[in-house]
Amino acid sequence: MPQFTNNKGPFEQVKDGFEKTSDHTSEYDPQDIEKNKVVCGLCYLGVLFFLPLIVCPDSKFGRFHANQALILLIFSVIISLTEFVWIVGGIFHGVLGLICAVFVIVGLVNAIQGKAKDLPVIGSIKLIK
Prior knowledge:
It contains five helices and no strands. By secondary structure, the chain is mainly α.
């Protein structure tokens, strides 16, 4: 039987991983958040990561979510490349694709709710400052 730290199962550990991501919401102007949260939510839909950079170029909240969405897009492209690895690639592609879909939903929900929380694992990478 697998052993889990703190007597928690795998689902509880994943939930803890999502809850322990850094929350940067307090670093942003509440008016900026309220004004741009819908645009920031849309940036998680595929190649629309650049949308906040065009619609609200002075928004720090927009830059945060544009960065998160760009990292997620790069992650999804890398996942697509795993499909070409024989046999094992199909399994990795399916599992990582599901994780990517969950990250898209988490990012979109965070943006729409006006939160600036890092995505688990990949959220600490900064390409857009």
